[in-house]
Amino acid sequence: MEEKNRLLVVANETIAAHQLMEMIRRRAAEAPTEVLLVAPALTGRLQYWLSDEDAGDAAARARLGESLRNLDAAGIEARGAVGDADPLLAMDDAVRTFGPDEMIVATHAAGRSNWLERGLVAQARERFDMPIVHVEVLEPEIALTRMREAPDAQAPPRERHELRDWLLFILAGVLAIGGTVLTASFVLAGMSDTALVWWVIFGDLGLKIVAFVIIWIVFQRRARADRLDY
Questions:
Q1: Is-above-0.90 flag for pTM?
Q2: What is the pLDDT of residue 153?
Q3: How far is residue 135's CA from residue 58's CA, in Å, rounded to a whole number?
Q4: How far apart are CA 161 and CA 169, in angstroms?
Q5: Is 52 exposed, middle or buried (0-12, 13-18, 19+ CB in 10 A)?
Q6: Exposure pattern of 197-215 as b/e (b: 16+ CB <10 Å)?
Q7: pLDDT score recorded for residue 109
Q8: What is the mean pLDDT of each run of 10 residues along the chain (230 residues)?
Q9: Domain ranges in the chain?
Q10: pLDDT recorded at residue 162
Q11: pLDDT of 152
Q12: Beta bridge pairs of residue 10
């Protein structure tokens, strides 16, 4: 049996774009191809920090469903997955679980694409050892295909969520330890027993609860692309 080419497609709202579908069809016509579509669960900045991806997850599922129906109608074997809100993490997960031979990344045009502003495609080319084609959807019927990205001095060399998580852990530690330090200070200062009890219940314990919630939020951020549920 001839081994199939494994094509990973990562796209935002452009996942149902006519140009992207046509490129996938051409790839499938050249050789037997198995396709995995990954749609990161796009969220706003506040939702991302709070790990509230429900709305982005639902929208990504809707986009995936439409695209998979189009590919099925064209006779192309394809699966879909909702990826992490961080597209680079979504790529990592998909590469690990799917083992693609090549990748297509579809974005909006420059100026509309947050992915391009963050230097996502350039980061992906540096991180993943495979051919990566960038499809930039300029208008509904116009697309620009890039095989290589121009160097972008403003693009971050890597995603900084690891730094963000460390800062959150440090904040949680400061809150938890700070509550204990304040309690000890109040005891040494001779605070009345009643006031001290109220402080421990509503102050020290409250700070520790906030610290726990912060740590829980960080650990709740998890990979989504493992769930190949389409």
A1: no
A2: 52
A3: 24
A4: 12
A5: middle
A6: eebbeeebeebbeebeebb
A7: 77
A8: 83 78 86 89 51 60 81 84 84 91 87 72 88 79 49 49 75 92 90 90 91 79 41
A9: 5-146, 161-220
A10: 61
A11: 52
A12: 38, 105
CB–CB of 47/58 below 8 Å?
Answer: no
In 3D, which of 22, 28, 40, 38 has the Cα closest to residue 142? 22
Instruction: List all residues 6 or more positions away from 224 whose beta carbon is below 8 Å from its beta carbon.
Output: 40, 41, 53, 57, 81, 82, 83, 84, 85, 90, 93
The pLDDT tens digits of the residues spanning 167-214 come to 888 999 999 999 999 999 988 888 888 898 999 999 999 999 999 988
Are the CB atoms for 142 and 48 separated by under 8 Å?
no
Right CATH for 5-146 from 1.10.340.30, 3.30.390.50, 1.20.120.530, 3.40.50.620: 3.40.50.620
Please name the residue that has the structure tokens 């005891």.
187
Structure tokens at 30: 């050249």
Beta-strand pair 142-146/132-139: antiparallel
CB 57 within 8 A of CB 82: yes
Tokens 């330890």 sit on residue: 177
Instruction: List the one residue out of 31, 35, 33, 55 whose CA is nearest residue 43.
Output: 55
121 touches 134 (CB < 8 A): yes
